[in-house]
Amino acid sequence: MHTIWKGSISFGLVNIPIKLHAATEDGDIKLRSLHKACHTPIKYEKVCPACEVELNKEDIIKGFEVAKGKFVEISDDEIQALKESKEEKSVEIVDFIELKEIDPIYFDRSYFLSPSEGGKKAYGLLKEALVKTKKVGIAKMMIRSKEQLSVIRVYENILLVETIHYPDEVRKVEEVPNIPSEKNVTKKELDTAILLIDQLTTDFSPEKYHDEYRQKLEGLIEEKSKEKQTVLPAESRANADNVTDLMAALQASIDQSKPKKKTTNKRSKKAKAL
């Protein structure tokens, strides 16, 4: 499993060297955008709309829009200095709480944690302590250039870290429009709804749920591929034509270079005989 980064977990005076691994992956099927006329993949270029020129990496700087059309420029050196003020490869547990205290809306991404060299004993100690106390750790960590709030908990038999949103990143429910403020259902309607929920209540078995759209799309792609319903971009077709032309030219060259068969002049033979 690919290691995202190596660092350490600290709580109190205990320090655990660890490795971070992505616990989930995006299962979406990536479709490319093609030019309808020639089937060439579309390129997305960075262009300045004012100068009407294509930009290279060194032409681009970062900025924050403080007002409409007004920006504060932030240099890469300034950003790097802020990063260096924090330990980028450390996970500091600041509190321990019960997992049920965290609403699922706060959860973002999940990562597996594995012990690095010399960290197996301390790793096992933290894991067992979390199991015995039925607690999770609230920690701060730097990942992908952002200070993340995270939860460290036990998943099956390993430690898992889940990044969670800060409170100001979760939008207020008051901002959601058209929410009824008063109950407008009858008792009979409510009882019927509860009965339906009871009938559909079961144990959670994640393996029984499937992305049906993705499966159908995979089937469509496989079917089209088997039936050779594929297209080539213009450049690839040109390359294929060039290869064909080259092979033809080579064959013609070979044919021309073959030694010609000697023909016997019947008249000269007859002359010699006479």
Describe the 3D structure:
The structure is a single chain. By secondary structure, this protein is of the alpha+beta class. It has a domain at 5-25 and 66-169: Ku70, Chain: A, Domain 2 (Beta Barrel). It is built from six helices and eleven strands. A seven-stranded mixed β-barrel has the order 1-2-8-11-10-9-7. A two-stranded antiparallel ribbon has the order 3-4. A two-stranded antiparallel sheet has the order 5-6. Strand 9 (136-143) and strand 10 (146-155) form a beta hairpin. The chain is extended. The chain starts with a strand and ends with a helix. The mean pLDDT is 83.
Give the helix tally.
6
Note the overall shape: extended
Which structural class fits the helix and strand makeup?
A: alpha+beta
Overall pLDDT: 83
Which fold name corresponds to the CATH topology of one domain? Ku70, Chain: A, Domain 2
- Beta-strand segment tally: 11
Assigned CATH class of one domain = Mainly Beta
Using only CA atoms, what is the Rg? 34 Å
Extract low-pLDDT stretches. none
Features:
274 residues, 6 helices, DNA damage, single chain, Prok_Ku, two-stranded antiparallel ribbon, alpha+beta, DNA_bd_Ku70/Ku80
